[in-house]
Amino acid sequence: MRVDIAKGILEKNDTLAEGNRELFAQKGVFVVDLMASPGAGKTSTILATIAALRDRYRIAVIEGDIASRVDAEKIAAHGIPAVQINTGGACHLESDMIRRAVDTLDLDEIDLLIIENVGNLVCPTDFDLGEHAKVMILSVPEGHDKPYKYPGIFQLSEAVILNKYDTVSFFDFNEEEFRGVVHDLNPNAPVFAMAATKGEGVDAWAEWLAARIEAAKAVGA
Question: Whole-prediction pTM value?
Fold first, then answer.
């Protein structure tokens, strides 16, 4: 007899994710799962998103890391509710982790929940968290060839953020090729070029996200 352990883990995760999704729908919370390599600028993108949308939506953040509370403390310093999840070595977040974190938040006071997944371009793609959208961040210094090497995350993401765009002239980054490969993998995913730490190019991404939030509200109304 052969037991497929991975399949069992994913099935359990997916069942719990559906429970999360139902809870978010009941509370009217839009959830986005941000995925990227370490150092791509997930936290700076979150801070830029908060600055762009905090006057329109009530925002909270779940931070996923192997260890430390550094990123959650950065978010909390801006007056935003933040929950830290330390995986202790796991390379991704799972739906049960999200549920435990969510239980510490007042969902009635949240419109947008941003999840910062563990820095990884592989594992997070397999785990549904109950989110409305997965979004991938790539920074210019990582190179334009990442869609070739990690196609799954680009295929799964509903949008792609090209961060640290202010450095594009300093690196051998072929933006035309990058956009072409992303389009081939995922024709419906927009690519937003931004420099999150400088607040450049954030508006287009923020408006796309706001449109998704409003569309979800309309469906739930």
Answer: 0.93
Q: Is residue 118 part of a domain?
A: yes
Q: How many Cβ atoms from other residues are within 10 Å of residue 14's Cβ?
A: 13
Structural domain boundaries enclosing 66: 5-137+200-220
Tens of pLDDT along 142-186? 999 999 999 999 999 999 999 999 999 999 999 999 999 999 999
User: What residue type is assigned to position 164 of the chain?
Assistant: K
What distance in Å separates the CA atoms of residue 38 and residue 54, rounded to the nearest whole number?
Answer: 25
Residue range 85-131, pLDDT digits in tens: 999 888 999 999 999 999 999 999 999 999 999 999 999 999 999 99
> Amino acid identity of 94?
E
Other beta carbons less than 10 A from residue 1's beta carbon:
2
Q: Does residue 80 lie within any of the structural domains?
A: yes
Count: domains in the chain: 1
For residue 48, the domain's CATH number is 3.40.50.300
| Half-sphere exposure for 4 (CA within 13 Å, toward CB) | 6
- The full DSSP string for 39-50 is TS-HHHHHHHHH
Tell me: pLDDT of 1 over 90: no
- Is residue 98 a part of any domain in this protein? yes
**CA-CA distance, 138 to 131, in Å (whole number)?**
20
Residue 73, in any domain of the structure: yes
Residue 187 burial by Cβ neighbours in a 10 Å radius (0-12, 13-18, 19+): exposed
Helix (H) or strand (E) holding 206: helix 202-220
> How far is it, in rounded angstroms, from Cα 32 to Cα 123?
17
